[in-house]
Amino acid sequence: MSKKSKGIDLITRIANIFRNKEGQALDFATRPYWKQIYNEMSRYVVLMTSRQIGKSTFQATRILYEMLSRRGASILLANAKEEQSKKFRQESLLPQIFRNPRLKRAAFGKSSINNAKMIKLSNGSTLHLEHVGSSADSARGSSAPTIIVDEVQDIPRGNVDVIMESAANFAEVSKYRFTGTCKDDRNIMYQLFLDTCQYEWIIPCASCNQDNPPIGMEHIDPEREYLFCAHCKEPINTLGGRWVAQNPQCKRVGYRIPRLIDLHTVWRNSADGILDKYETYSRDKFLNEVMAMPSVQGEALITLQELESFCEDRPIMDPDNVPKEEILGQAIIAAVDWAYNTVLGGVSHTILSIAKVENDHIKILYMKRFSGPYYEGLKGPDLVLNEIQGLVAAFGVDWVFADHRIGNKENLRLKQRIGKRMVEVEYSSGSHPVRLKKDTSRYSIPRTESLDRLFNQLRAGRFIFPNVDSSTEYLTDILNVYTHYNEDHTRRTYERKGGASDDFLHLLNYTLIAAIQHFGEKMPWLGKYSYKD
Predict the structure, then answer these.
(1) Structural domains of the chain, ranges and CATH numbers in brackets
(2) How many of the other CB atoms lie within 10 Å of CB of 393?
(3) Contact between 150 and 84 (Cβ < 8 Å)
């Protein structure tokens, strides 16, 4: 670097040399949150980011600047997987050099090296590229004062410790930078961030003159296609934000960079907008990849307050007085979850819902849990079956979707009474389209994928319910479900809390499946979902 540049701050030097992935000047005017980060000189830095926020460009420019600005610099860059290292080298690092002829001449000469494992510049500065996701053996024996671990969420904690030992011989000058996207609350990315000063981008509101809390789910509303104040709901401008440490006594530096703080955020774009992702991503994926937040295990996937906000000022419909205008010409779907004898010593009850599918939502008309002494005697199953048959007739139900697993016997009895309107469904593991199994005439539904979709539609307000007094006892079933990530099998599942009921949740899922099966692409708010016979 020239003597003239010594008085210039780091970000200005970088902006004078490097470009973004499109070959254009780095934009800090509309992305001011990057200024402090590019200038960051702390020895220990953690960046917990959303996807597509500019992390790779930051990594590439800072690494190359540090290599070019002094002779003999040594950096170890560790990724979880070989393909991640390869992609970063080919798509982010090398283009910075090759698109700039002067930089290329300064970087590469007769003594330089450029391969998948090492980049050595003409000035003797070296970048070692390692992948240590499943084994840290490749990093053992490496020695460098600067350690950078990218996509750290995919690397076991023990391997990260091994990587850090690569700087053990440089105790006075060692530097560490950890970057990635968090997963659940036990993930190493989130653990590393918690052990820092926890910088959050705090945006003041010009309308109510209050600072907003750190950007979170309170800034998401499907009806507001803009960043808004959590207090007064008026639009706020991210350009006026500033980094504020939430744990200021900690000397280690950490930044959380959610997608929403970028001025160029697209809120609606058929599939790629923030709100499109909110309605189609799983809750975990949206929190991790868009909000740069962990998905906390055991936490409710939606709040009772949110669910009650979708309740209308109407009672549960009276089966003896069903208005014909409410059901004529509409798709009417019933869902049934049959009782089984005992669960943890308690009695289980058959539950039923009846819904009308409208243009932009599913309207729950009727709900009933068949509980109480009347249904618990020997004649109970017959009483329930007779009543369900009557409800199907009263509401003009087109389809009855019911679980096969427990209720196969009752499904057969109901099918004898109502014919082909009776449809059996069964959950399956893994990922596959919802499909009709011809050998059993049952729909096979991927459990996790379908429940992901259901919670997306619930949060988007695509289900509406009778009044709060009538609905709350059913809505609480939804609160009894949470996601669990099984690290041994590397898959996420939905679990039920203790012996609590989750029956109504599954009725809504069956109803949603039936609605998609009935309407398909005619209901664009349901998004893309593939079905095969």
Answers:
(1) 3-202+242-267 (3.40.50.300), 304-532 (3.30.420.240)
(2) 12
(3) yes
* 38-48 b/e (C-beta count within 10 Å ≥ 16 → b): bebeeebbbbb
Range scoring the smallest mean pLDDT among 36-45, 97-106, 365-374, 485-494: 485-494
- CA-based nearest residue to 60, from 2, 106, 107, 14: 14
C-alpha radius of gyration, the chain, whole number: 28
pLDDT, the chain, mean: 86
Structure tokens at 106: 């300064």
Smallest Cα–Cα separation from 300: which of 483, 463, 464? 483
Which SS3 state, helix, strand or coil, does residue 304 take?
helix
Owner of token pair 């950490």 = 254
Distance CA 253, CA 255 (A): 7
Question: In this structure, are strands 199-202 and 242-245 parallel, antiparallel, or unpaired?
Answer: antiparallel
Give tens-digit pLDDT for 63-117. Answer: 999 999 989 999 999 998 888 989 999 999 999 988 888 888 888 988 889 998 9
DSSP 8-state class, residue 405: H
CB atoms within 10 A of CB 6: 8
DSSP state of 311: B
DSSP letter (8 states) at residue 69: S
> What is the C-alpha separation between 418 and 399, in angstroms, rounded?
10
Phi, psi of 425 (to 5 degrees): -130, 155
Distance CA 132, CA 80 (A): 5
What is the predicted pLDDT for the residue at 416?
A: 93
List helix spans (H) across 73-148: 82-88, 94-98, 101-107
